[in-house]
Amino acid sequence: MLDKNENQNSSxxxxxxxxxxxxxxxxxxxxxxxxxxxxxELDARDVGxxxxxxxxxxxxxxxxxxxxxxxxxxxxxFGGQEIQRSMLEAEGITFLSxxxxxxxxxxxxxxxxxxxxx
DNA sequence: CGCCTGACAGACT
DNA sequence: TAGTCTGCCAGGC
Length: 118
Prior knowledge:
The protein is mainly alpha-helical.
């Protein structure tokens, strides 16, 4: 885990990791939200980019980060959307018949407390 | 140091 | 509601 002090010195990626790592199970956050949480130091697009470069094995729940439509990441990310979907379902996240996440129900809404701890 | 790409979002059609 | 176009920016080469 990165320390709170460390993330302000590290690149934007570190901040993204910090936030993503704090997304509670059963909830999902959009790239835009994350970008907003870090006071728009970067764009939603950058968050995605960072995630692409994200080191697995740090316990980083990248599968909880989705785009605003609730679509899952492309197949080349987790080895198939089905994989990501399985992981999310295991956390209690429900899907629509479209294969998209039920955002209205699972969107991370109370991240204000997180910011205090961060 | 400059050019190209991209796990997105918002506005428009 | 969905598909298309555009905008911003950090990383990779």
